[in-house]
Amino acid sequence: MEDKFRYFSERIAQWTGTPWSFALAISLVLLWAVSGPVFGYSDTWQLVINTGTTIITFLMVFLIQNTQNRDAIAVQLKLDELLRVVKGARTGMINVDQLSNAELEQLRRDLEKIGREDGCDLASIEAKVTSHSRRRHEKSGASSEELRSERSVEVEIEKKVKKESESPGETP
To answer: Which portions of the chain have biased composition (kind: Basic and acidic residues) (predicted)?
Structure first.
């Protein structure tokens, strides 16, 4: 039964993600709306669309969740395999998805600290980009207007970095 449900949910998810299924849904809603005067906009007429959309939504939740669960597992397995085969990768990261929320938060903080120490924080990366951009413009002989424009972007980046450094722990 599980294989049949998997096959069915994959096919439905694929089909409902097509322009044709969207066009069909729009057509049904338009047909329902146009039929309003014929049925005198009665309670039964309204009940038809409400009931139909509720049932479809209810069933789609399970189909979409099944598809997302499978996709998430497949992606996690692929990442685990990459960690396993890449030389120097932290193989302790394999199965990280099995950690508790508290353990994941601690790991995130630890990795952010390592990133800052290795110069991989936002400020360091933006400084490297700015420096590279300046060198590129100097080599290309960019006009003073282009350099001023680029400098204004750099000033905005510096403001952003300063703001983020003043409020540590907040996420953008």
So the answer is: 145-166
Is 172 a member of any domain?
no
Q: Is the pTM of this model over 0.85?
A: no
> Residue type for 108, please?
R
CB 79 within 8 A of CB 96: no
Calculate the alpha carbon distances from 150 to 11, 131, 138, 164, 170 in Å: 49, 11, 12, 21, 28
Give the chain's domain count: 2
Collapsed DSSP state (helix, strand, coil) of residue 5: helix
Q: What does the pLDDT look like over 46-74, one tens digit per residue?
A: 999 999 999 999 999 998 898 888 899 89
CA distance 18 to 128: 43
Torsion sign across C-alpha atoms 101, 107, 113, 118 = negative
Alpha helices in 86-168 (DSSP H): 101-117, 122-140, 144-166
- For 64, residues 6+ apart whose C-beta sits below 8 A from its C-beta are 13
CB contact set of 142 (below 8 Å; sequence gap of 6+): 150
Give the per-residue pLDDT at 148.
63
Domain carrying residue 31: 2-85
- Check whether residue 72 and residue 104 sit in a common domain: no
CA dist., res. 25 & res. 17, Å (int): 12
> Residue 143 pLDDT > 70, yes or no?
no
